[in-house]
Amino acid sequence: xxxxxxxxxxxxxxxxxxxxxxxxxxxxxKANLSLQSSDEGEGSFTEVKSNASRIGLKGSHDLGDxxxxxxxxxxxxxxxxxSDSGDSITDRNQYVGLAGSFGEVLLGKNDxxxxxxxxxxxxxxxxxxxxxxxxxxxxxxxxxxxxxxxxFSDFQVGITYIAEDxxxxxxxxxxxxxxxxxxxxxxxxxxxxxxxxxxxxxxITRATVQGKVSGVVLGAMLQTQEKVDGSDEMDxxxxxxxxxxxxxxxxxxxxxxxxxxxDDKSGITLGxxxxxxxxxxxxxxxxxxxxxxxxxxxxxxxxIEYNF
Length: 308
Prior knowledge:
CATH architecture: Beta Barrel
Number of strands: 17
Helix content: under 10%
Strand content: over 45%
Strand order of the largest sheet: 1-3-4-5-6-7-8-9-10-11-12-13-14-15-16-17
Structural class: mainly beta
Number of domains: 1
């Protein structure tokens, strides 16, 4: 643990000297903590939970002739101090690459294109209602080569190649086609179609769309998944909505996972955010999962998120 903390300290302190040579170095992070009552089938308990809190540095260096080095080193920090793995600091996206008129190429650890294809449709990402609770595909993979093309008429193509780093393993591929802007600031609609082939043992197809109608941001996702041997087949869908009214944002999300053989699962999350500043918000949510043959789960929480 001490070594891990020292490693992060060296990386962050090194960024101070890097700023003398690089055009852009940014130290950033997010602290997200909630106080919540959780019931995972054996009775309720109270906990303070760190929700994907993180710290990192990222930047770029102009090499001239239209070529730029881009890099990121990001770490997840469990601010509640009781990580299940016993390690309060873990790796998130960490890569280096080149960007230019050809697009961008990255080497390192990164979200797959299928994971990136969700855009901002999952309005409870990093919380208990995150779509990863019921679906596969939310993968951050090591040993990756990622490519994203330039945008053509708001369309963009992305490919992730995952080297399995073992003699008897199969390499994986994640491919996506994107349309529009995920933040809906440069386009009225965001949409994507993505496919995973042999990524963490699964083949997955996902389609996503999000847009704004009369001030309400509406989103939807469809997903099919199965293990590479053809078992564990699932069809699922998710719909989400959010509406901003002054400093308040109301949010709702429903997700379903229908497994071949009748083991169906579904989840509903309702919540609200209150903006204290551009960097800081208070939030609350209630999530309930109907797990069919498994234990139902319920979560009621209030928290704070600070971005820097």
